[in-house]
Amino acid sequence: MTISKKTFIGLGSVAMMASLTFGAGIAQAQDGQLRGNIRVVIGSTSTGGDTYQNSSIVVDKLAEHLDLNMKVDAVGASSAFRTLDRDSRGNTLMIFHDQSYLGHLYGVQGYSDIFEEYTVGPTVAINPGNAYLVPKNSPYETLDDIIAAAGNGETVRVAIQPGGVSEIGFSALKNAIAIEHPGMEDNLVAVNTGSQADKNQQLFDGQADVINGTVQANEQFTRLPEDDQKAMRFVWLTARQDTIEQAPEEGLGQTSREQLLEYVEPNVHVTMGDDETFTFDKEFFFLYNKDMDPGIVAQIDEALAEIYAEGEIQEVQKNAFFIPNFKPSGEASEYLYEKMSRYEEIIESIK
Amino acid sequence: MEFLSLLDITFFLLAGFGALIGIIFGAIPGMTATMAVAVCLPLTYALGLNHGLALLLGLYVGGISGGMVPAVLLNIPGTPSSITTTFDGYPMAQKGEGEKALRVCVIASLVGGLISAAVLFLFAPLLADFSIKFSYVEKFLIILLALTVIASLSSNMLIGIFSGVIGIWLSLIGDYSISDGGNGKTRLMFDFMEPFLFEGFSLLPVLIGIFGISTILLEAEKGVKSGLTNERVRIGKGVSANFSLSIFKGRLTNLVRSSFIGTFVGMLPGVGGSAASVLAYTQEKNLAKDSSQMGKGAPQGLIASESANNALTGGALIPLLSLGIPGDSTTAVLIGAFTLQGIQVGPLFIPENTETWYVMMTALVFANFVMFFLMFYAIKYIAKVVLVPKHILFPIIVMMCVVGAYAINYGIMFDVWTLLIFGILGYLIQKVGLEVAPLIIGFILGSQAEIYFVKSLESAGTLSIFFTKSPIAGVLWLLILASVMFSLMMSLKSRAKRRQELLG
What we know:
- By secondary structure, chain A is of the alpha/beta class.
- Chain A has two domains: 15-127 and 282-349, D-Maltodextrin-Binding Protein, domain 2, CATH 3.40.190.150; 130-261, Periplasmic binding protein-like II (D-Maltodextrin-Binding Protein, domain 2, 3-Layer(aba) Sandwich).
- Helices cover 44% and strands 19% of the residues of chain A.
- In chain A, the strands form two sheets. Chain A has a six-stranded mixed sheet, with helices on both faces. In chain A, strands 7-6-8-5-9 form a five-stranded mixed sheet, sandwiched between helices.
- By secondary structure, chain B is mainly alpha-helical.
- Chain B has one domain (2-124, 136-503).
- Chain B has 23 helices and two strands.
- Chain B has a two-stranded antiparallel ribbon.
- Chain B is globular, with a radius of gyration of 22 Å.
- Classes of the chains: A alpha/beta, B mainly alpha.
- At the A-B interface, helix 1, helix 2, helix 3, strand 2 and helix 4 of A face helix 2, helix 16, helix 19 and helix 21 of B.
- Chain B: Keywords: Membrane, Transmembrane, Transmembrane helix.
- Chain B: This is DUF112 domain-containing protein.
- Chain B: InterPro entries: DUF112_TM.
- Chain B: Pfam families: TctA (PF01970).
């Protein structure tokens, strides 16, 4: 939908621009503190997606705690980075997830090294829902079947959105096939598509054997009767076992946590070599302008630590099927850098 | 009927209020229904799901209908889907029939909205199953069918097609976005343009520029002599008061057909809203007994365009509520209301949330009626806009256009330059004799056509897939052929007629 991408939203921003100038003027200057109106841009254009939902939860709490006016704007990755580049005062913050460095690793235009160009802020939550699905009547019962099939020379087509979170599981799978069945990894073929709707459609059309999806968006499809063209089945959730274990017991929709645990490691094993299993948690974190006052970084860390200590935000996040995961910026930056390095290896090795 | 207990006075007030605000958003060039819904989305937190949905659906219906006002009175489509409304609406307004044109539009909108709501209510799950039969190939063919309107719309077919191709070319500037499954690389530009044109020209600034700003430039060239924007517009007891329902006599097929086309296009995810009205307009042009006046101020064009674009509302909700997939850009925002409330939308949404489903239907139908009454009785006053002296009205329009363009992508200054560039381009285009309507239709549909074309080839690897994919593809080809043949015949006929006149 071209229009949806471009025609996105904005009266709010006009009002905001006006009030920004206004607000900044009357706010008491105090060094190293957030002031005036704060705009939090996110790397997705969708207001129906997990990034918007998660950011709203965090920003709402933060605004209340700091008694500031904060607003989440779904501007999309490249606009968000550019907006953040322009503002070192701290009136623009960004929330995004692993896509921010994966985009760079995959060499997508518009992405740079976030560890070089920006300050990595605190992590706030994990969306444990990154999943791979097959049609309900697929011959592949498990992910092992898929690895074995590709190893036997069968072509397996996987619908993904290239260049990021949607591709990383595919890359890991390809890497696993290369390790277990050397030379056969090219039998796993990526079908590059866009939105979740497009990926689903590829499955309905029989143009893909496996699709990348999410628990949130695809759970209802897994409950359709087998003779329904739209019926699907989970074969793999990329999240760590620990992560899913923290989800509410009732799971999501009619799929319980216990059922979800069937599709994660160690039940599903995607090797990275050396007995290591590939996992991927989609984590949300703040990104700041490199030149932003370190005082603000500390202020947000502190505020979030207090919010998380109160314990209420965790409930809200869990209700929305997010796993709370607060790490202050220093720790988060180190942790994410290490995480990136692991995925970098996988992406390099299948190039 | 348990859901009745969920409906209270606040519910109806919010739906009505939403419709009103939506109409205002839709009527201001540069502000769209999508924007209205997005701005009010966070309110659903405070309002709760049912009240929130009432407000958002009101905004949606109002926003789509509001676009007709500037389209008719000022030749600026208030929303992209009212572009075909300008073709006949503005000529009517120039003839002093602005009020009449608006009344036709309002009635067509109401009928379109209600028909699509009925279809949504009765057949949603069934149609969702049908809509997934449309893969990349069929979607490409639908857009191709909509593009054939270029041939019948242009006064000189060769120039029209040439303009359309330029429009498509302009739409390809920018990156082939990875969010569409592309490679994310930019093309058709120099490196220094990348920061501005990474995502290509934004649709709305282009639209407002090429229609609004260029119209104003053309007017400015004439100079302000009369003082009034349109002295011939008569309010009250004048010509325009002669509106009666008899305009719709013999137009029922058109009304119903266009409503169904709108619902149908809305139901296909990824085929944008503007395709609905363009397609309905093409079909009316091809199928009507006498379509010679279309484009010169014929009510039938308005009926086709407005019933189709309002029918989009019900249509776009079909895949949203029965597949969890938004049918257009506004429903893509609307889905946020559900996510924020923790409600899953997917194939089991309707059976699992029956009450919410009834609540939505009530809000949708009610919002359509509110829209109707608000607009139908306010038209008298709205139409007076054209009585404002030009030297006051035009600067205000320019200002609104600039604000709208700046706001559309959250304050990107380049969008304002886009507005001006395309304003001047629109002016020049008309000076050198190219045609604006085909160009803009090419621009709107071009990028989607490209994506579906490339994706079809990627998944099949052969061109023959376009002919052999499915029976649906076959039917679409027949429609495309019929549409092209018809335009050719029309053009030959009018050429013969002209020749005869010359000889005679």
